[in-house]
Amino acid sequence: MKVLVTGGLGFIGSHTVVELQNEGFEVVIIDNLSNATEDVLKGIAAITGKTPLFEKLDLREKAAVHDFFKKHNDVTGVIHFAASKAVGESVEQPLLYYENNINSLIYLLQELQQKPEASFIFSSSCTVYGQAEKMPITEDAPVQTAMSPYGNTKQIGEEIITDTAKVTNIRAILLRYFNPVGAHSSNEIGELPLGVPQNLVPFITQTGMGLRKELSVFGDDYPTPDGTAVRDYIHVVDLAKAHVIALKRLFDKKNLQKVETFNLGTGTGSSVLEVINSFEKVSDKKLPYKIMPRREGDITEAYANTDKANNVLGWKAQLSLDEAMASAWKWEQKVRS
Ligand code: UD1
């Protein structure tokens, strides 16, 4: 079966391509290389022994998307990662985010709706819950007004897919990720953030390498056990495996609704200080950090109720925070060597 993975050279995309190829799927990647390089193909090939097909293409180009589906008319399964994902940048450049994240989705669905059947996996985020009232967060927790254009594109994306699935032959699964971290155990692929990382784990590993002077811990006055904010850090390899399971579920028509939603997290919340401790343990290094004011727009805590993912999807995170931090650290050292 040929599967299209958009954004397949990115962080989560590349790990998912590996898992798909390991399961025998033929993969074609679309990526516009805005936040990735073709070198990632070599990493994927080193792990799986196979180089996936690759088309450099920008999904905002409707005609190019149409031509792609004409050429690869045997694609009936799509995992859609390609999107812009920096929260701060989305506030500065809202139209870039709406154009990139929404238009690309529409053009893909316009092609898929012409097929007798199609399976679509969407990269969504726990950001749709905002600060949820109850922890851990279940899939039926209310979606709250988005705090950034980025977050809004995930909510709108979910709605576009849901409305379209109702009246077409498209079946879809919306995967709401918590905080993806870590790297492949082979050390052939990992996260490659451009510029100064905004996310906690790449900032920590870069600080460990001496590229950043110190980590700013954003807030120690949250109503949490140690005062720092709590998140659910999920190993990217676990996350990648969930995509393959979700796609097979749709291919096998095991889905119970036209559109299903699953939280992808470990179910355990970790504070910023706990993440720092984990890093210090696995790297045997002291991490320089200072306590700073809260970051605007940050929530206090978010961790997943994983019952639905465990029992309905049949997926469970296997890897620990320490394993994620150790792999992220190993990867950072390789990238800088
Ligand atoms: C962020 C995005 C979220 C997106 C996710 C993708 C915001 C407000 N949210 O989530 O929409 O889906 O990334 O991965 O940007 N922290 C520090 N110092 C740092 C960096 C982070 O203390 O230098 C803290 C943050 O305050 C937070 C935790 O670490 O409590 C995790 O931060 P981050 O990795 O940026 O993820 P989120 O903010 O949860």
From TrEMBL:
Catalytic activity: UDP-alpha-D-glucose = UDP-alpha-D-galactose
NAD(P)-binding domain boundaries: 4-325
Keywords noted in UniProt: Carbohydrate metabolism, Isomerase, NAD
Top class in the EC scheme: isomerase
Sample GO molecular function, one term: UDP-glucose 4-epimerase activity
InterPro entries in the cross-refs: NAD(P)-bd_dom, NAD(P)-bd_dom_sf, UDP_G4E
EC number: 5.1.3.2
Pathway: Carbohydrate metabolism; galactose metabolism
CDD domains attached to this UniProt entry: UDP_G4E_1_SDR_e
Cofactor section: NAD(+)
NCBIfam families hit by this protein: galE (TIGR01179)
PANTHER family: UDP-GLUCOSE 4-EPIMERASE
Family statement drawn from the similarity comment of this UniProt entry: Belongs to the NAD(P)-dependent epimerase/dehydratase family.
Self-association and partners: Homodimer.
Descriptive protein name: UDP-glucose 4-epimerase
